Amino acid sequence: MRNVTRLTTFAVPVLLAGLLCVEISAQGQGRGSAAPQTAQASAAFDITGYWVAVITQDWRLRMVMPPKGDYMGFPMTVESKKVADVWDPAKDEAAGEQCKGYGAAGLMRLPTRLHVTWQDANTLRMDADFGTQTRVFHFGEWTSPGGAPTWQGDSVATWSPRRVLAAPSSPKARGLKVVTTNMRPAYLRRNGVPYSAGATLTEYFDVFPEPDGDMMIVTTVVEDPIYLYNPLIVASHFKKEPNGAKWDPTPCSAKW
User: Fold this and answer.
1) Do the Cβ atoms of 135 and 104 come closer than 8 Å?
2) In which band, very low, low, confident or very high, does the pLDDT at 165 lie, cut at 50, 70 and 90?
3) How confident is the model over 51-104, as pLDDT tens digits?
4) Rg of the chain taking only CA atoms, in angstroms
């Protein structure tokens, strides 16, 4: 009897340990096989809806067509100035390039409204009514299919940490980071200040709740090895609107 008791006493812990290992293994397999969370489900904030540009900085250069030769605020190379000095809006119109002032690297500085929607669970769509432009932000493992450059380029998006808080256990603040390449040469300012096909546009979108409506800040960094001797960094502000009642798509123009 003692031998049986000893065997039982030994076998029970071994059996329990085995069951525990099976359970842990099953849990691990469950976690490993679970589908990754979509960009929409893991969004740091709700960026969807209608937004209007709040222009309190450089008003005269953003609300109306700036005069030729006004390059204030740009780290332009000698080559960039040569290109801007011969800007001719009539030639742009005649060549069918009236949208050069509405490319991705300059679009957020225009007096536009934005309409942001989820095209699918891993793709954000941003429409601008000023110039009737559409940008598409791809999350996940998306890679550019290549092809000819376009005004809005190819954009890869991530929900990225914006800062690390003092306490390691505290959550990191996150924002929307978008990197855009494969852009067609266009203008940083509509009076001919250029950026090249080799430019890279990096943007950081942050949304902040306010008592009278959410605010969005878009920090834009443009790097161009040909036309900028330093990165161009600007911040643009947008206010959320309750609906699309003021949405007013208008075509590109090189003259107004």
Assistant:
1) yes
2) low
3) 999 998 888 889 988 899 999 899 999 999 999 999 999 999 999 999 999 999
4) 26
| Distant-in-sequence, close-in-space partners of 219: CB < 8 Å, separation ≥ 6 | 203, 204, 206, 233, 234, 235
Q: Around Cβ 116, how many Cβ atoms within 10 Å?
A: 20
Judge if pTM exceeds 0.90.
no
Q: How far is residue 129's CA from residue 125's CA, in Å, rounded to a whole number? A: 13
Positive or negative torsion for Cα 91, 181, 140, 44: negative
Domain spans, the chain: 1-34, 49-241
- Here the tokens at position 122 are 């891993």
